[in-house]
Amino acid sequence: MANATKTIGSGITIRPEEAAHFGTLAADWWDPKGSSAMLHRLNPVRLGFVRAAIDVHWGGDPRGVRPLAGKRALDVGCGAGLLCEPLARLGAAVTGVDAAAENVAAAAAHAGGAGLIIDYRHGEIGTLGLSRFDLVCSMEVIEHVADKPAFVAALAACLAPGGLMILSTPNRTAASKMLLVEGAERLGMIPRGTHHWDDFVTPEELRDLLDAAGLTMGEPRGIAWSPAKGLHLSGDLALNYIVGATAG
Fold it and tell me: Taking a C-beta distance cutoff of 8 angstroms, is the pair 159, 247 a contact?
């Protein structure tokens, strides 16, 4: 859902039409009842996984309020900052990168209003002079890029030794095609044109991409939906999944 960037090297991953699509949503990105309403429902689920992964990876206290204190975090395809701001509140020095200038402007304005210092950048990862980060996140992004191996390699290049990467993406299944593309978009729950089912990535494909970039993928968790629970972490990977990866 957040959009793509170009990457280090010759592999161009940005799709201008994708950046334009998400840029048009920037004005009401932070409206929980607006065009990004589904992201507002999804974000707490993702954050639950992120927080647990942080505590396990660095052996932190699950009761601590700033588990990322002293650490640097990068969110690639950050949109208007729905993940960046919670990461900053968890103590990280946060950088957010997005392909749409409109999103970066909206993100910076919202962070300023919230009293948060977040370094937002617009453009290609490889040209921004970024160093390495303890935590690298990219949520609902890889399905929007043209050159997935190049994109994953660029993310890996931003990960510091001993760091943690967290990715989430829709799975390419019959269920995701029916519910995320043909269902949610046609019903107006997600803006039309957000998803292209053929670009969805299966967990097996993501594992291969991460392996090629020198990263080891952990056990993915599904993000499922039910009438009783709404969106929630699950063992069912059919719709969407989130996973951590580490170097080596």
Answer: yes
| pTM given for the model | 0.88
Domains parsed from the chain with CATH numbers: 16-247 (3.40.50.150)
**Is there a contact between 176 and 38 (Cβ–Cβ < 8 Å)?**
no
Q: Which residues 6+ apart lie within 8 Å of 65 measured at CB?
A: 90, 91
Q: Are 234 and 227 in contact (CB under 8 A)?
A: no
Length of the chain: 248
What's the Cα-to-Cα distance from 23 to each of 16, 30, 31, 144, 248, rounded to whole Å? 10, 13, 15, 14, 36
Query: What would the two tokens of residue 113 be?
Result: 């209003």
DSSP-derived 3-state class of residue 40: helix
pLDDT value of residue 11: 52
Note the pLDDT of residue 140.
92
DSSP bridge pairs for 136:
74, 165
Q: Which residues 6+ apart lie within 8 Å of 180 measured at CB?
A: 170, 190, 195, 197, 239, 240
Q: Where are the alpha helices (DSSP H) in 59-81?
A: none
Q: What is the pLDDT of residue 176?
A: 86
Q: Which residues in the chain land under pLDDT 50?
A: 1-10
The answer to whether residues 38 and 189 touch, using CB atoms and an 8 Å cutoff, is: yes
Q: Residue 183: count other Cβ atoms within 10 Å of its Cβ.
A: 14
